[in-house]
Amino acid sequence: MLSIDIITVLPELLESPLNHSIMQRAKDRGLLKVNLINLRDYSTHKQKQVDDYQYGGGAGMVLMIEPIANCINQLKSEKSYDEIIYMSPDGELLNQQKANYLSLKQNILILCGHYKGVDERVREHFITKEISIGEYVISGGELAAVVLVDALGRLVPGVLNDETSALFDSFQDGKIAPPVYTRPANYKGWEVPEILLSGHAAKIDEWREAQAQKRTNERTKLS
Protein backbone atom coordinates (compact mmCIF):
# COMPACT_ATOMS: atom_id res chain seq x y z
CA MET A 1 0.00 0.00 0.00
CA LEU A 2 1.13 3.53 -0.77
CA SER A 3 0.50 5.97 2.07
CA ILE A 4 0.56 9.72 1.36
CA ASP A 5 0.20 12.44 4.00
CA ILE A 6 -0.49 15.96 2.74
CA ILE A 7 0.15 19.10 4.82
CA THR A 8 -2.06 21.97 3.69
CA VAL A 9 -3.80 25.13 4.87
CA LEU A 10 -6.80 24.22 2.70
CA PRO A 11 -7.68 20.54 3.26
CA GLU A 12 -11.19 21.09 1.91
CA LEU A 13 -9.71 21.97 -1.48
CA LEU A 14 -8.23 18.46 -1.71
CA GLU A 15 -11.21 16.47 -0.49
CA SER A 16 -13.33 16.33 -3.64
CA PRO A 17 -10.73 15.32 -6.26
CA LEU A 18 -9.31 12.64 -3.96
CA ASN A 19 -12.71 11.14 -3.16
CA HIS A 20 -13.88 10.18 -6.63
CA SER A 21 -13.11 7.84 -9.51
CA ILE A 22 -9.80 5.96 -9.51
CA MET A 23 -8.49 7.58 -6.32
CA GLN A 24 -11.58 6.58 -4.33
CA ARG A 25 -11.43 3.08 -5.77
CA ALA A 26 -7.78 2.78 -4.73
CA LYS A 27 -8.62 3.84 -1.18
CA ASP A 28 -11.62 1.51 -1.00
CA ARG A 29 -9.40 -1.40 -2.03
CA GLY A 30 -6.85 -0.56 0.65
CA LEU A 31 -4.16 0.11 -1.95
CA LEU A 32 -3.79 3.85 -1.34
CA LYS A 33 -4.12 5.86 1.85
CA VAL A 34 -4.29 9.66 1.73
CA ASN A 35 -4.32 11.65 4.95
CA LEU A 36 -5.01 15.38 4.87
CA ILE A 37 -3.31 17.36 7.64
CA ASN A 38 -4.39 20.90 8.47
CA LEU A 39 -1.28 22.98 9.13
CA ARG A 40 -3.27 25.34 11.35
CA ASP A 41 -3.63 22.55 13.91
CA TYR A 42 0.09 22.93 14.59
CA SER A 43 0.12 26.68 15.09
CA THR A 44 0.93 28.00 18.57
CA HIS A 45 -0.86 31.29 17.84
CA LYS A 46 -4.25 31.96 19.39
CA GLN A 47 -5.74 32.74 15.98
CA LYS A 48 -4.07 29.69 14.39
CA GLN A 49 -1.84 31.94 12.28
CA VAL A 50 0.57 30.08 9.98
CA ASP A 51 1.92 32.91 7.82
CA ASP A 52 3.67 36.24 8.31
CA TYR A 53 5.30 39.09 6.42
CA GLN A 54 8.66 38.36 4.81
CA TYR A 55 11.86 39.85 6.19
CA GLY A 56 13.34 42.53 3.98
CA GLY A 57 9.95 43.66 2.72
CA GLY A 58 8.08 42.68 -0.40
CA ALA A 59 4.60 41.62 -1.39
CA GLY A 60 3.09 38.35 -0.26
CA MET A 61 2.88 36.40 2.98
CA VAL A 62 5.17 33.47 3.81
CA LEU A 63 4.32 30.23 5.63
CA MET A 64 6.23 30.25 8.91
CA ILE A 65 8.74 27.59 9.86
CA GLU A 66 7.38 26.93 13.37
CA PRO A 67 4.01 25.32 12.53
CA ILE A 68 5.57 23.38 9.65
CA ALA A 69 8.40 22.11 11.85
CA ASN A 70 5.91 21.19 14.61
CA CYS A 71 3.83 19.27 12.09
CA ILE A 72 6.64 17.43 10.32
CA ASN A 73 8.42 16.51 13.54
CA GLN A 74 5.21 15.11 15.00
CA LEU A 75 4.52 13.07 11.87
CA LYS A 76 8.11 11.79 11.70
CA SER A 77 7.83 10.59 15.29
CA GLU A 78 4.95 8.34 14.19
CA LYS A 79 6.32 6.95 10.93
CA SER A 80 9.35 6.95 8.66
CA TYR A 81 8.98 8.76 5.33
CA ASP A 82 10.69 7.69 2.13
CA GLU A 83 10.35 11.23 0.75
CA ILE A 84 9.21 14.60 2.09
CA ILE A 85 8.12 16.52 -0.99
CA TYR A 86 7.52 20.23 -1.38
CA MET A 87 5.30 21.21 -4.30
CA SER A 88 7.03 24.18 -5.88
CA PRO A 89 7.06 25.79 -9.37
CA ASP A 90 10.87 25.74 -9.30
CA GLY A 91 11.19 22.07 -8.30
CA GLU A 92 12.06 19.08 -10.50
CA LEU A 93 9.54 18.80 -13.31
CA LEU A 94 7.21 15.86 -12.74
CA ASN A 95 7.39 13.25 -15.50
CA GLN A 96 6.38 9.62 -15.89
CA GLN A 97 9.75 8.29 -14.80
CA LYS A 98 9.58 10.23 -11.51
CA ALA A 99 6.00 9.05 -11.00
CA ASN A 100 7.08 5.43 -11.55
CA TYR A 101 9.90 5.84 -9.02
CA LEU A 102 7.75 7.47 -6.34
CA SER A 103 4.88 4.99 -6.78
CA LEU A 104 7.19 2.25 -5.46
CA LYS A 105 7.61 4.03 -2.12
CA GLN A 106 5.56 3.22 0.98
CA ASN A 107 5.28 6.49 2.89
CA ILE A 108 5.37 9.93 1.30
CA LEU A 109 4.77 13.31 2.93
CA ILE A 110 3.76 16.24 0.74
CA LEU A 111 3.91 19.88 1.83
CA CYS A 112 1.71 22.29 -0.10
CA GLY A 113 3.10 25.78 -0.39
CA HIS A 114 0.77 28.75 -0.27
CA TYR A 115 0.84 32.52 -0.45
CA LYS A 116 4.44 33.52 -1.34
CA GLY A 117 5.81 30.12 -0.37
CA VAL A 118 7.47 28.72 2.75
CA ASP A 119 10.31 29.94 4.94
CA GLU A 120 13.49 28.83 3.15
CA ARG A 121 14.69 27.01 6.26
CA VAL A 122 11.89 24.49 5.75
CA ARG A 123 13.28 23.64 2.33
CA GLU A 124 16.83 23.46 3.65
CA HIS A 125 16.20 21.22 6.67
CA PHE A 126 13.07 19.16 6.10
CA ILE A 127 12.43 18.67 2.38
CA THR A 128 14.04 15.76 0.54
CA LYS A 129 12.59 16.47 -2.92
CA GLU A 130 10.93 19.43 -4.63
CA ILE A 131 8.50 18.76 -7.45
CA SER A 132 6.84 21.05 -9.99
CA ILE A 133 3.97 20.18 -12.31
CA GLY A 134 4.99 22.92 -14.76
CA GLU A 135 6.83 26.17 -15.23
CA TYR A 136 3.95 28.39 -14.14
CA VAL A 137 2.50 29.63 -10.86
CA ILE A 138 -0.86 28.63 -9.36
CA SER A 139 -2.50 29.82 -6.14
CA GLY A 140 -1.05 27.06 -3.97
CA GLY A 141 0.45 23.60 -3.90
CA GLU A 142 -2.87 21.83 -3.28
CA LEU A 143 -3.86 21.32 -6.91
CA ALA A 144 -0.30 20.31 -7.77
CA ALA A 145 -0.41 17.76 -4.93
CA VAL A 146 -3.62 16.29 -6.37
CA VAL A 147 -1.89 15.86 -9.73
CA LEU A 148 1.03 14.09 -8.06
CA VAL A 149 -1.19 11.80 -5.97
CA ASP A 150 -3.25 10.86 -9.03
CA ALA A 151 -0.11 10.15 -11.07
CA LEU A 152 1.25 7.89 -8.34
CA GLY A 153 -1.97 6.26 -7.23
CA ARG A 154 -2.94 4.88 -10.62
CA LEU A 155 0.43 3.11 -10.85
CA VAL A 156 -0.09 1.08 -7.67
CA PRO A 157 -0.76 -2.57 -8.67
CA GLY A 158 -4.45 -3.41 -8.41
CA VAL A 159 -5.75 0.17 -8.68
CA LEU A 160 -6.64 0.06 -12.38
CA ASN A 161 -9.13 -2.56 -13.52
CA ASP A 162 -6.87 -3.41 -16.46
CA GLU A 163 -3.43 -4.09 -15.00
CA THR A 164 -1.73 -3.41 -18.36
CA SER A 165 -3.39 -0.03 -18.89
CA ALA A 166 -0.77 2.07 -17.09
CA LEU A 167 2.02 0.28 -18.94
CA PHE A 168 0.82 1.72 -22.23
CA ASP A 169 0.22 5.29 -21.09
CA SER A 170 2.00 8.13 -22.80
CA PHE A 171 5.65 8.55 -21.75
CA GLN A 172 6.00 5.10 -20.14
CA ASP A 173 8.43 4.09 -22.89
CA GLY A 174 9.51 7.62 -23.76
CA LYS A 175 6.86 7.93 -26.46
CA ILE A 176 3.44 9.55 -26.66
CA ALA A 177 0.59 7.03 -26.82
CA PRO A 178 -0.83 6.22 -30.27
CA PRO A 179 -4.35 7.25 -31.37
CA VAL A 180 -7.26 5.21 -30.04
CA TYR A 181 -10.74 4.60 -31.50
CA THR A 182 -14.03 2.98 -30.50
CA ARG A 183 -17.45 2.33 -32.06
CA PRO A 184 -18.86 3.18 -34.50
CA ALA A 185 -16.26 2.19 -37.07
CA ASN A 186 -17.66 4.76 -39.48
CA TYR A 187 -19.05 8.06 -38.24
CA LYS A 188 -20.30 10.36 -41.00
CA GLY A 189 -17.57 9.08 -43.30
CA TRP A 190 -14.81 9.35 -40.69
CA GLU A 191 -13.45 5.83 -40.55
CA VAL A 192 -11.37 3.91 -38.07
CA PRO A 193 -8.06 2.73 -39.61
CA GLU A 194 -8.67 -0.63 -41.26
CA ILE A 195 -5.73 -2.30 -39.52
CA LEU A 196 -7.48 -1.93 -36.14
CA LEU A 197 -10.44 -3.92 -37.44
CA SER A 198 -8.29 -6.70 -38.91
CA GLY A 199 -7.90 -8.79 -35.75
CA HIS A 200 -4.21 -9.29 -36.60
CA ALA A 201 -2.56 -8.60 -33.21
CA ALA A 202 1.04 -8.45 -34.43
CA LYS A 203 0.23 -6.00 -37.22
CA ILE A 204 -1.87 -3.88 -34.88
CA ASP A 205 1.03 -3.69 -32.40
CA GLU A 206 3.34 -2.72 -35.24
CA TRP A 207 0.92 0.01 -36.38
CA ARG A 208 0.56 1.37 -32.85
CA GLU A 209 4.31 1.47 -32.36
CA ALA A 210 4.75 3.36 -35.63
CA GLN A 211 1.97 5.81 -34.76
CA ALA A 212 3.40 6.41 -31.28
CA GLN A 213 6.82 7.18 -32.75
CA LYS A 214 5.30 9.43 -35.43
CA ARG A 215 3.25 11.38 -32.88
CA THR A 216 6.25 11.71 -30.54
CA ASN A 217 8.44 13.03 -33.35
CA GLU A 218 5.78 15.55 -34.37
CA ARG A 219 5.16 16.84 -30.85
CA THR A 220 8.88 17.03 -30.10
CA LYS A 221 9.42 19.30 -33.08
CA LEU A 222 6.63 21.61 -31.85
CA SER A 223 7.98 21.91 -28.29
Strand and helix layout:
Layout: E1 2-8, H1 11-15, H2 21-28, E2 32-38, E3 51-53, E4 61-63, H3 65-76, E5 83-93, H4 96-103, E6 107-112, H5 120-125, E7 129-132, H6 141-153, E8 186-187, E9 190-191, H7 201-222
Parallel strand pairs: 1-2, 1-6, 5-6, 5-7
Antiparallel strand pairs: 3-4, 8-9
Helix pairs in contact: 4-6
Molecular structure report:
This protein is an alpha/beta fold. The protein folds into two domains: 2-153, SPOUT methyltransferase, trefoil knot domain (Alpha/beta knot); 175-222, tRNA(m1g37)methyltransferase, domain 2 (Trp Operon Repressor, Chain A, Orthogonal Bundle), CATH 1.10.1270. Helix content is 33%, strand content 20%. The chain contains seven helices and nine strands; from the N terminus they run E-H-H-E-E-E-H-E-H-E-H-E-H-E-E-H. The protein has helices at residues 11-15, 21-28, 65-76, 96-103, 120-125, 141-153, 201-222; strands spanning 2-8, 32-38, 51-53, 61-63, 83-93, 107-112, 129-132, 186-187, 190-191. A five-stranded parallel beta sheet has the order 2-1-6-5-7. A two-stranded antiparallel sheet has the order 3-4. Helix 4 (96-103) packs across helix 6 (141-153). The longest helix is centred in the C-terminal third of the chain and has 22 residues, at 201-222. The protein starts with a strand and ends with a helix. The model has no long low-confidence stretch (mean pLDDT 92).
